[in-house]
């Protein structure tokens, strides 16, 4: 078994639901990003051995296959779509890395794509003749209705003990980082439908946050629209390769990152924030291995060893609690802003974190470590650690 490396990482801009991508089908969002990754790495479509994309809303039909064909990949290249809700994009990259590590493939395109704007209307088929179909916004995330809260309730639970002002401050900082980084973010964005920047990002202020509609209120806990990531459309893809392909890339002086660590987690199905907290905590505690002169040496990671952290911001309360519980250094966190400043394209969000991580690490010295982490409905969590080669 050998390592897995990321040779290229690109994404579309993120557009709020009903925005610039309102008429763009999911596979048409992903196709130009697939092509861009291959172009960046100097690889041809026929060299790709598999395409894996995460997606939660397209309604089936294997959107990864549609995207691969739309991108001009040969019909002989297989494609897989997976759904672990918000973790889908990061899980797709993990799966690609495992394929490469196991020797099952040497070049895999992986990531996620989502279109809230073009997602199909969903309905439960009638059980008896004469009954009408029942439309629904989301599927069940647990088999027990009593343990399947709405996502806004889950986010409210994570925000307990935090004031609206604290949540607003976190959201304001996320937007400020994204605005400051807009010029350098363009390097990772593939223009689609004329959009080459994350259109939701703005100069958010305490006054604007104070006027934001309240989405949830119970006792002293309040969530408003400024502190919850908006529904959005986007695609994000990385090119995962074997060591042989990575060495060729290094020879031309282009950035390469090795998949240093990747793992999925789970917690109580009604508590996704606990899953992302477990992902952060256990990633830091797990024993990692390096090979020096053919000798495996174990060591315990500490947060001070991680230069970049891309943490999902489903809400300000969730992200802020995760930061405090794990004592994350604010200087390492979401340097180009987070989902509060971009939006949350469910199946693509984890892949966007990986793309952001790759580009942030490209500016670091060789050996630098970076971590991406995200939680998903049903109590799932996923973490990916990359090391700059």
UniProtKB/TrEMBL annotation:
Keyword flag Acyltransferase: yes
Alphabetized PROSITE patterns for the sequence: THIOLASE_2 (PS00737)
Thiolase C-terminal domain mapped to chain residues: 301-388
InterPro entries per record: Thiolase (IPR002155), Thiolase-like (IPR016039), Thiolase_C (IPR020617), Thiolase_CS (IPR020613), Thiolase_N (IPR020616)
Record-linked Pfam families: Thiolase_C, Thiolase_N
Ranges of residues in domain Thiolase N-terminal: 5-197
GO molecular function: acetyl-CoA C-acyltransferase activity
Record keyword Glycoprotein present: no
This protein's UniProt keywords: Acyltransferase, Transferase
Record-linked Gene3D superfamilies: 3.40.47.10
Family: Belongs to the thiolase-like superfamily. Thiolase family.
Full protein name: Acetyl-CoA acetyltransferase
